[in-house]
Amino acid sequence: ENAPDLMSEKLGVDISATDVRSAKGAGDITVSGGSSLYKTSSLTSDTTSTGVKANGGLSKTFLSTGTNVYGDLSYDKYTSDTGTTTAEGYSPALTLGVRQPLLYNFLGAVDKSALKSAEMQYEIDKVQYDLTKTALINAYKKFYIEWVAYSEIVKNNQKNIKNALANYNQVLRKKERRLAENDDVQSAYSAVLSYRQSYNKNLITLNNLEQQIKTIVKMDKVSPANGEFDTKYSGIKKSTITYIPFENSKSYEILTQELA
After folding, report:
1. SS3 per residue for the chain
2. Residues 189, 135: Cα–Cα separation, whole Å
């Protein structure tokens, strides 16, 4: 989950899921409402009116047809004062209606297309995420096996250098007693240089592998297991390759989604 490539693919899946929710949001139930107080006075008489208005409504768009159904309820309660008489009254109202697009979104063509496109992209991103995850897991399995192998190789190189140095020193002592020729000394020293060269080369490879693995796990929590390489190698030798038809593969699933 910490691999940069996998994090990028996971972000793509999350964005696609958000796009699906956004496309479905066009069919949400919408609630509206409000209220107000008012007071009016006549310029030609002493009549004043005060009151309160309140209204509320619901609307719902059906994505399958593009039809919008709505209802509004309003209520107006007022008091009128002429200076000599006072009157009270109220005025309720209920409105029900239907809106149906007749052009581009007729029968919900635009809404359904946006939702289908978002859902298709979401499915594609999920499949791509699974492919990337599988590829990364296989790649890091390979890195781990190589890490274990090169850890052992570097250890063997160190032993070989130690043994070559011991042999070189022994040849030097023999030459001092005239029991070895100069060619023998040069040959022993050449062996030391050869093992040191191999050690440096393999150490660089080991460090590169560790850097690759560090992107997934913390190195202070993981170390090569003794015998791990032999176990993995033995398992690989015994494993068999299974043919998977293209029609049953993840790649085929992505292709069909793209062409749908």
Report:
1. CCCHHHHHHHHHHHHHHHHHHHHHHHHCEEEEEEEEEEEEECCCCCCEEEEEEEEEEEEEEECCCCEEEEEEEEEEEEEEECCCCEEEEEEEEEEEEEECCCCCCHHHHHHHHHHHHHHHHHHHHHHHHHHHHHHHHHHHHHHHHHHHHHHHHHHHHHHHHHHHHHHHHHHHHHHHCCCCCHHHHHHHHHHHHHHHHHHHHHHHHHHHHHHHHHCCCCHHHCCCCCCHHHHHHHHHHHCCCCCCCHHHCHHHHHHHHHHC
2. 46
Instruction: Provide the Cα torsion 102, 107, 108, 110; round to 10°.
Output: -60
SS3 of 58-120: the string is EEEEECCCCEEEEEEEEEEEEEEECCCCEEEEEEEEEEEEEECCCCCCHHHHHHHHHHHHHHH
pLDDT at 11: 84
Max mean pLDDT among 56-65, 76-85, 244-253 falls in 56-65
pLDDT tens digits along 123-179: 888 888 888 888 877 877 788 888 888 888 999 999 999 999 999 999 998 888 888
Q: Please write the tens of the pLDDT for every residue from 121-131.
A: 888 888 888 88
Task: Give the model's pLDDT for residue 144.
Answer: 80
Residue entry with tokens 């310029």: 43
pLDDT for residue 235 is more than 80: no
Query: Model's pTM, two decimal places?
Result: 0.51
Mean pLDDT of the region 208-221: 71
